[in-house]
């Protein structure tokens, strides 16, 4: 439930060109702005749209998908109206509420670096005040914990597992963004915290909602989160210059653009391959083969886009390759549910 980080080589360590103010009138700019995507620009005046932009709805999707994977791995999900509504509440918890909290919190603590990398963001551009941002952070956090507690009551948990996950994930979000720890200053710790938050935490919530969360599922999803670490590194390339100026040790800053790109793709591919091997080990061969077939196009897009120009093709690469990663997560969830792990 954490945000995407702001953060030699044969390629220059130069930042991508800033979006000019005129971009606000370009086709699709308004939608990009509301979704919190790179390349949006200032110009919005509605406070509710500005608040939504701070929550970066584009980042909710992996968390919502993680809940689906967790429900699948539980092996107990049923297609009834009650289960659909309860799972939707868990998606609300993981996506709009706690990911929205995380993204707003991160923008609050990143306002100095955003003034360098993305000055059109709501806080550095001055379209929303600091007290308004702080109130949004608290509202989303408390609403998320409240929904988590209600889900625990529905599931009949003796120990409030989902509430504990919500509080733990929110604390992880805080130490990721806020000093003195500010995990995002360290490329390895910060990116793994991000990967685990995007894969393991919502998966655990979905699994706990409909089944019993166990150590096997917890460890497997933490291993899968190493692939999420690779995805997190992709987002560091867009902010390499600002990170360097403020002393943030993202992997592109530490290792250079080319080496960091290779670390990124190897983390994504190797750990997914390890999960496929595990599925074969528990005799879920069909699911393992499907997972391998999903890894192949990822490798193709890595070669076509990311390894050739990670600064220029980061968004294009994510749009083309990440759907195969998230489909692989669902395949794994279905395999675990089928095996009764």
Could you characterize the architecture of this molecule?
This protein has helices at 29-35, 47-55, 60-74, 81-109, 111-117, 122-125, 130-155, 161-177, 187-210, 215-234, 240-246, 251-255, 257-281, 285-306, 314-339. It is mainly α and 341 residues long. It has two domains: 42-213, Orthogonal Bundle (Tetracycline Repressor, domain 2), CATH 1.10.357.140; 214-341, Four Helix Bundle (Hemerythrin (Met), subunit A), CATH 1.20.120. Helix 4 runs parallel beside helix 8 (161-177) and helix 14 (285-306) runs antiparallel to helix 15. The radius of gyration is 20 Å and the shape is globular. Residues 1-25 have low confidence and may be disordered.
State which percent range the strand residues make up: under 5%
SS-based class: mainly alpha
How far apart the termini lie comes to 24 Å
Q: How is the quaternary structure best described?
A: single chain
CATH superfamily of the largest domain: UbiA prenyltransferase
Please estimate the helix content: over 70%
Count of DSSP-assigned helices: 15
Give the second-level CATH assignment, the architecture of the largest domain: Orthogonal Bundle
CATH topology of the largest domain: the name is Tetracycline Repressor, domain 2
Shape: globular
Present the secondary structure layout.
Blueprint: H1 29-35, H2 47-55, H3 60-74, H4 81-109, H5 111-117, H6 122-125, H7 130-155, H8 161-177, H9 187-210, H10 215-234, H11 240-246, H12 251-255, H13 257-281, H14 285-306, H15 314-339
Record keyword descriptors for this entry.
single chain, 341 residues, 15 helices, Four Helix Bundle (Hemerythrin (Met), subunit A), mainly alpha, globular, Tetracycline Repressor, domain 2
